[in-house]
Write a structure and sequence with these properties.
By secondary structure, the protein is an alpha/beta fold. It is globular, with a radius of gyration of 20 Å. β13 and β14 form a beta hairpin. The chain is about 25% helix and about 25% strand.
């Protein structure tokens, strides 16, 4: 039976691998969690998975055929992607994976998420506020500038005066100009959402981002607040949304206005906090795609679960 799970581009996703191992073996004791990586020997997640396989770069023309071959050889029933750059190609080719469920959203929805301009339009269409948008001839300081397709908080800029505006920021079309949301007025949240195979919302877990390192949460806490009600009201169904999504918002601490920032249609790096709070998305996936169960809406996760991350090591004696 194809009861094994494959996590692609595993990198440092040790906690995610362990969560899937834990839940999978409760149902199928002999099943395994496999990882792929460009260099498994240097991937900590590949070292803790049950089996790791080297694969070519995502941009390689053989990537999909290699992945299909790995799935067939290893009885893989579910693929879990973990990075932005593989989502579109997996969505475009998911029908080629026989007897393997690729847990990825539709091509259309991924295109909405990957281009932040499209994401803004999506928020507006669904009644969610966005930051005020500017252009190069009409803006106010402080100004926030980011690329329309960035991730991990890379290439973002807070501009306080004209002297800080360089030609690259002004002349490249990829940059978006918007109002700066000050941490003195706004608290940033990442929301772990789960959408079932019918694209219906089944769980909402807001995580307050207390501290961030390298664009990923290092200290956070689960909070049940007005964000839950807003998302449940506005985003109860998203056509094409599948599996775990992370929604970034800012909550105004004075008037409780919620500002939508971006959506990532994959497991986020901070998902382990939601898992330990009781929002068991690996279990949801196993129940849906292996056991063919229909999921009920789940809200009994633990509020005020605090995560404090630290660096650890995986030691290999060669």
């Amino acid at each position: 039976m194809n009861n094994n799970i494959l996590i692609t581009s595993a990198g440092r996703r040790v906690s995610l691998v362990k969560a899937f191992q834990n839940e999978l073996k409760k149902v199928f004791p002999d099943a395994i969690v496999i990882t792929t990586d460009l260099n498994p020997n240097l991937s900590s997640a590949s070292q803790v998975s049950d089996k790791s396989v080297e694969i070519c770069e995502i941009t390689d023309s053989n990537y999909i055929s290699e992945l299909i071959s790995i799935c067939k050889l290893n009885n893989v029933g579910v693929i879990i992607p973990t990075i932005d750059t593989e989502l579109q190609i997996l969505a475009e080719n998911k029908e080629k994976f026989e007897n393997t469920n690729v847990i990825v959203s539709s091509k259309m929805f991924i295109s909405i998420c990957r281009d932040k301009r499209n994401t803004n339009n999506f928020f507006i269409e669904n009644g969610i506020n966005i930051p005020r948008q500017f252009n190069i001839t009409n803006f106010e300081f402080p100004l926030f500038i980011k690329p329309n397709n960035g991730s991990l908080s890379a290439d973002i800029h807070v501009i306080e005066n004209n002297a800080q505006l360089n030609p690259k920021l002004l002349n490249e079309d990829k940059y978006m100009f918007m109002e700066y949301l000050s941490p003195n007025e706004y608290q940033e949240y990442t929301i772990d959402l789960y959408y079932d195979r019918n694209s219906d919302l089944k769980c909402i877990v807001p995580r307050k981002r207390i501290e961030v390192r390298g664009g990923e949460i290092s200290k956070g806490k689960t909070i049940k607040n007005e964000i839950v009600n807003l998302v449940k009201q506005k985003l109860v169904h998203i056509e094409g949304a599948i599996g775990c999504l992370t929604l970034q918002v800012f909550l105004n601490t004075i008037n409780n206005i919620i500002i939508g920032i971006e959506i990532n249609p994959r497991f986020g790096g901070g998902y382990p906090l939601s898992y330990f709070a009781g929002a068991n998305y690996p279990k949801f996936i196993i129940e849906e795609y292996f056991l063919n169960k229909n999921l009920d809406y789940f809200e009994d996760w633990k509020e005020n679960t605090l995560m404090l991350r630290y660096d650890s090591e995986v030691i290999i004696y060669e």
